[in-house]
């Protein structure tokens, strides 16, 4: 490192050396945190002094040798026998001193004062005197520099000799430079007093590096690659400690080259962890114990608490904390997570557990929050305290309230291990299964048998019955689930209104998800304000009722309003997640695709923030289903794969039909039939077809069979899907348009009459309300009807599908409309519609449809009337292109458009070229004269 931010300090040291004369000495004390550059500065001073002709004598204090008599003195004088005197004589003197005082008896912590009170024998006194004279004699010939690093660890005998030397040579050209770690008070006050009396005394405090200093140090080491390492982040982690900065540089090197275009990220790895440990070990052993205590507590703690935990005096803890802070090892009293892990791992497992246990007892006695005490209990093996179970359960409740499911799960797991009461254990087991279910439903499955038995025997509290029913239904254990549902009923007489509302909402939720197993609550289903007062108080009821209404009667504005009101009133938590899914599904089935996509993205981000894998997986699967309805199979496939990455297929239970059907449909639409076939080979539980997810799976599998030339297999799936929907009274085409799909399968086997009958039924069920379901039904009616009657239903279908936002269904409808127009002789309009359809199909990655449309376009004659581009096709243009297109259609010249839009005529010409290509027109007369306003922008 270039001493960038040490220039002032180095200048002081050089000035001190320069002032040394035959009758003048000097002294300096360099102070700073561990690893903050003291040794480096001493090294620079020694190098300069050696070049200037000084006799350099240096030593390093060590905690391990602090009681070895003369260890520092021996380091100072060894190797300098020639300048100091005869080699043999000096060796004899050093040997005499060190052998006579192998274990000096210091009377206090400052060494020299205690040693000075001892009675030294004449030989020792004489030897020390002659050693002083040897240094003083050498100084008369050449100036001497005495350097001692980590002077706080100097042994008593060496310190006594050094003080004696300073008293014997107050004006000799001897410069003494010592370096010590910053503490709340000097380690050797007598030495400080003696140095302070020396001429030219300097006190050189070393601060840690600034951000600019860190940046320059990074540049020194990484050169042109310095941009890989953000200096501000490095400074925040290292505290400006040069030693730690170098360690982070090494971690950066080990990480290798970053991904092209990636934002530089600080890497904190093994080198940093090892350097932190090295820094702490360079202090007294109590410093490591203090660091271990801070790592266990993982919080800024007062010295009094640390002293009680480690059974040390408070002053020692305070000085130790100051040393760690001065070294940049602490941030607001806490270790960096990587450093914390390294410090904890420096403890043997039993020691680590014992320290956590002592900390738990201490914090419990101080009245610390349950979550804090619980963390320490979990990390310790001693949970035998009589209060441990209550603390762990309270902490679990607080974690659940804060959506910290993993932490709650760990608390409940620990509570189960210490619980000795069978009745309490069943309740804890139910809560534990609930948290396990949110993390990975497979974990909860192993506890369901015990809980179901407890419910049957009357040992499981009723409040857990419906939650247990959800778990049992998820895993396809329908008989046990029905017992749980029937057990709770509608709540006991006098039941709390909030509890009654939750019971009602839960039963409605289960009935809409598992209609083959759970009966609806009594009363008219959803949407008719069947419980207006309770619905207004509990948004969960409102969301569940809205979905029940849509499934039974189809979507309407009231149901959509209820669903949106419910979502606005709820925050994502364990008590709302399933009802949020209900409300979101209402918008999906009502064709509010842009709104539901935004809501899904919102809830998906919330799930990621809360780190609940099941929630993230469910919302990703729901968002994939919405992407399919938007005609985006590529995004749907990515989202469905993400859902299965969060929760593996074997953990989804009967709900595997959701993500799996999304994958099959997405792969089928993009022409990846091999992948679709592999997805269909994933084992699914038999109970799948007693849930709403079974409908999605049958629909997806039927589409795959139809696309791959197996219409009879497709008919079986569509017919089964329809039979279930009719039996469950969910026969709404907005859920699954099974009649339209079955009609196309009948067409494929040549049964046009049955196909047309199913298509007309579908159209009647879809009603007159503009919807995606009606658009699909109109397409099917046109496909099954007479050739001369296709233009009208297909024209309406295109308008409806364009309005609802399903780009892939729109592409198919445009292709069919183009075919009808070609048959009617309007090839110009047909070609434009085919171009639009082909662009939509290609953008969606729908390879089979794109190939069919391209082949169809080849068969359309190029003659015939041209016709104008459709105004709706303007959405294919950018904002600037739209403005140019509309002005050109109104008859303005390029120059007029350029003046109007404040651009050059050349720019206008370039925009028009792209407009003609995108819209498939050749002249300005074919541009639409209405549609997008002039100020429409991107």
TrEMBL record:
InterPro entries: AAA_16, P-loop_NTPase, Sig_transdc_resp-reg_C-effctor, TPR-like_helical_dom_sf, Tscrpt_reg_LuxR_C, WH-like_DNA-bd_sf
Transmembrane segments annotated in the record for this chain: none
Signal peptide: none
Keywords per UniProt: ATP-binding, Nucleotide-binding
One Pfam family matching this protein: AAA_16
Keyword Protease: no
Record keyword ATP-binding present: yes
UniProt region (Disordered), positions on chain: 514-533
Highest taxon in the source lineage: Bacteria
Domain HTH luxR-type span(s) in chain numbering: 870-935
PANTHER family: GUANYLATE CYCLASE DOMAIN-CONTAINING PROTEIN, TESTICULAR SOLUBLE ADENYLYL CYCLASE
Protein name: AAA family ATPase
Native organism: Streptomyces chrestomyceticus
Source lineage: Bacteria, Bacillati, Actinomycetota, Actinomycetes, Kitasatosporales
């Amino acid at each position: 490192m270039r001493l960038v931010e040490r220039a002032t300090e180095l200048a002081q040291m050089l000035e001190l050396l320069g002032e040394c004369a035959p009758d003048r000495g000097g002294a300096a004390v360099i102070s700073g945190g561990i690893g903050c550059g003291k040794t480096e500065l001493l090294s620079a001073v020694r190098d300069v002094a050696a070049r200037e002709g000084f006799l350099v004598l240096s030593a390093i204090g060590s905690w391990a040798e602090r009681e070895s008599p003369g260890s520092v003195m021996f380091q100072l004088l060894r190797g300098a026998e020639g300048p100091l005197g005869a080699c043999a004589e000096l060796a004899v003197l050093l040997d005499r001193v060190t052998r006579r005082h192998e274990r000096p008896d210091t009377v206090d912590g400052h060494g020299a004062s205690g040693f000075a009170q001892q009675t030294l024998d004449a030989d020792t006194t004489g030897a020390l005197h002659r050693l002083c004279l040897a240094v003083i004699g050498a100084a008369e010939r050449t100036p001497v520099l005495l350097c001692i690093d980590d002077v706080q660890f100097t042994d008593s005998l060496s310190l006594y000799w050094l003080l004696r030397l300073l008293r014997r040579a107050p004006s000799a050209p001897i410069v003494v430079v010592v370096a010590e770690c910053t503490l709340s008070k000097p380690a050797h006050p007598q030495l400080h007093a003696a140095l302070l009396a020396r001429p030219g005394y300097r006190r050189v405090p070393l601060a840690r590096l600034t951000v600019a200093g860190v940046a320059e140090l990074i540049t020194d080491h990484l050169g042109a690659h310095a941009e890989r390492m953000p200096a501000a982040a490095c400074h925040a982690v290292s505290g400006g400690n040069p030693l730690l900065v170098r360690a982070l540089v090494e971690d950066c090197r080990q990480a290798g080259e970053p991904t092209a275009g990636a934002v530089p990220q600080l890497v904190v790895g093994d080198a940093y962890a090892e350097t932190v440990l090295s820094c702490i070990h360079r202090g007294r052993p109590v410093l490591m114990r203090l660091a271990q205590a801070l790592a266990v507590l993982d919080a800024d703690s007062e010295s009094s608490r640390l002293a009680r935990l480690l059974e040390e005096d408070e002053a020692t803890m305070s000085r130790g904390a100051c040393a760690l802070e001065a070294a940049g090892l602490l941030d607001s009293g806490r270790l960096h997570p990587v450093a914390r892990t390294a410090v904890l791992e420096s403890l043997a497992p039993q020691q680590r557990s014992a320290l956590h246990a002592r900390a738990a007892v201490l914090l419990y006695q101080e009245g610390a929050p349950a979550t804090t005490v619980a963390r320490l209990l979990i990390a310790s093996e001693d949970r035998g305290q009589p209060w441990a179970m209550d603390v762990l359960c309270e902490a679990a409740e607080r974690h659940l309230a804060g959506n910290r499911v993993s932490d709650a799960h760990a608390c409940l797991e620990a509570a189960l291990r210490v619980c000795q009461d069978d009745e309490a254990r069943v309740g804890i087991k139910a809560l534990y299964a609930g948290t396990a279910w949110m993390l990975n439903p497979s974990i909860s499955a192993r506890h369901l048998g015990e809980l179901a038995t407890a419910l049957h025997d009357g040992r499981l509290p009723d409040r857990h019955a419906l939650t247990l029913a959800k778990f049992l239904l998820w895993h396809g254990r329908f008989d046990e689930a029905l017992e749980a549902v029937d057990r709770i009923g509608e709540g006991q007489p006098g039941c709390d209104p909030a509890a009654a509302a939750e019971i009602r909402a839960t039963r409605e939720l289960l009935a809409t998800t598992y209609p083959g197993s759970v009966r609806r609550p009594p009363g008219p289903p959803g949407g008719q304000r069947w419980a207006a007062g309770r619905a207004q108080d509990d948004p969960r009821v409102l969301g569940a009722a809205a979905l029940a209404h849509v499934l039974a009667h189809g979507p309407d504005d009231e149901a959509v309003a209820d669903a949106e009101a419910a979502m606005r009133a709820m925050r994502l938590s364990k008590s709302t997640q399933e009802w949020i899914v209900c409300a979101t599904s209402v918008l999906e089935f009502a064709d509010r695709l842009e709104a539901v996509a935004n809501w899904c993205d919102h809830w998906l981000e919330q799930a990621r923030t809360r780190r609940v894998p099941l929630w993230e997986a469910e919302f990703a699967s729901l968002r994939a289903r919405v992407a399919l309805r938007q005609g985006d199979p590529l995004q749907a496939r990515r989202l469905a794969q993400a859902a299965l990455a969060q929760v593996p297929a074997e953990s989804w239970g009967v709900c595997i039909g959701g993500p799996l059907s999304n994958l099959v449909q997405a792969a089928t639409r993009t022409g990846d039939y091999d992948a679709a076939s592999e997805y269909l080979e994933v084992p699914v539980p038999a109970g799948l077809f007693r849930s709403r997810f079974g409908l999605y799976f049958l629909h997806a599998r039927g589409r795959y069979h139809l696309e791959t030339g197996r219409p009879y297999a497709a008919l079986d799936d569509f017919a089964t899907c329809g039979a279930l929907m009719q039996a469950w009274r969910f026969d709404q085409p907005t859920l699954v348009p099974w009649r339209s799909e079955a009609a196309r399968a009948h067409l494929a086997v040549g049964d046009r009459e049955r196909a047309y009958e199913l298509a007309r039924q579908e159209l009647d069920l879809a009603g007159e309300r503009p919807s995606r379901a009606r658009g699909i039904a109109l397409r099917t009616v046109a496909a099954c009807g007479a050739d001369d009657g296709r233009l009208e239903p297909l024209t309406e279908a295109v308008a409806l599908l364009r309005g609802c936002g399903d780009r892939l269904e729109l592409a198919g409808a445009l292709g069919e409309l183009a075919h009808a127009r070609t048959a009617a002789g309007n090839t110009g309009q047909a070609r434009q519609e085919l171009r639009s359809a082909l662009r939509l199909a290609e953008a969606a990655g729908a390879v089979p449809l794109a190939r069919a449309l391209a082949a169809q376009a080849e068969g359309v004659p190029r003659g015939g009337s041209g016709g104008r581009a459709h105004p709706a096709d303007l959405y294919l243009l950018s904002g600037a292109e739209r403005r140019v297109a509309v002005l050109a259609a109104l008859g303005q010249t390029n120059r007029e458009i350029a003046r109007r839009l404040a651009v050059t005529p050349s720019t206008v010409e370039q925009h028009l070229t792209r407009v003609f290509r995108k819209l498939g027109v050749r002249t300005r007369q074919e541009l639409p004269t209405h549609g997008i306003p002039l100020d429409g922008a991107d």
